[in-house]
Fold:
Amino acid sequence: MSEHTLIERLGAVSDPVLPAEQAGVARWRTASADDIDAIHGVLAAADRVDHPTWTTPREEVAETFELSHIDHGRDTLIGFDADGAAVAVGTVTLYPARDERLHVHLSGAVHPEHRGRGIGSALFGWQHERAQQQLLEASTADAAAAALPAEIQIYAAEKDAALERIAEGHGYRTERWFSTMHRDLTQPIPGVEAIPGIELVPYSADRAEDARQARNDAFRDHWGSLPSQPERWQQFIGGPFLRPDLCTLALDGGRIVAFCLASVNEDDFAVLGPNAYIDLVGVVRSHRGRGLAPLVIATSLAAMRDAGLGVAVLDVDTESPTGANALYGALGFTAYEKDRVLVLRY
Structure:
């Protein structure tokens, strides 16, 4: 921990000011639940250009309005053109955990038809100010939080030079790369020998909290990972996209010691064909080095193939401490595209 409080480290913080009217944006305002479709429309349009193999589901946008730690009336900004159509959106999310650090995530997009006009710069400037305000408010309300390190983070596609330039202009620096990998399920899936004492079962709702605890243990030493909170976890495991039949849990004495959790969003089929996304793969620290990761992944890949899906997709930290890149490569995954993570630390 720093010898200076976060308030001191932040220095002077101004309240975020709505950007001025500019080319392509006649009005900026914060969001309400009535804006879910407008927000999703901007994100979906951007997805088709920035990463056409996957689309942000409307359900994902709607779920954020149910989370207690997000106040879209203060945390989300939307820009509208003269006809009232949304052309840009940005959200600033302060993570609720206060265990090790304060973490703010920036997300959003500018509609592809309105890029190159300075809209992204104006949006990011507001997001940056709101993020600093969130950190100040958290440190003012909680003396323990004021002593923690803090960070603001944003993901940018490798080809998104504009966002990289804008973020770097505010002091953010690239700290990590994540790679999206694809696996052709029509190709043979390597057999993995059973491990004595380990039982493999699909995911079931009665194991929700055990799975959350296993996830948090497995990811504690991963870069940038924060403990999954019950509210958001329930949205994930209880949502419309998780496919329990494609998920694999490894049990030791009834305890989850490894997992592969996967989901299916049929809106993504247009480009990749029928595919599944592997959301999480992990092994609790007490059981690493026993071959559990390839066992649960290979089992889930076989289930995906048997369900008629043609491609498996996942994202991985290119510097994963567990050697995940080599593991996925050995299981037939190949890199497709990369995202950088730009971070500003206090």
About this structure: The chain has twelve helices and twelve strands. The chain has two domains: 6-171, 178-339. The first strand starts at residue 27 and ends at 30. Residues 262 and 278 are 4 Å apart (CA to CA).
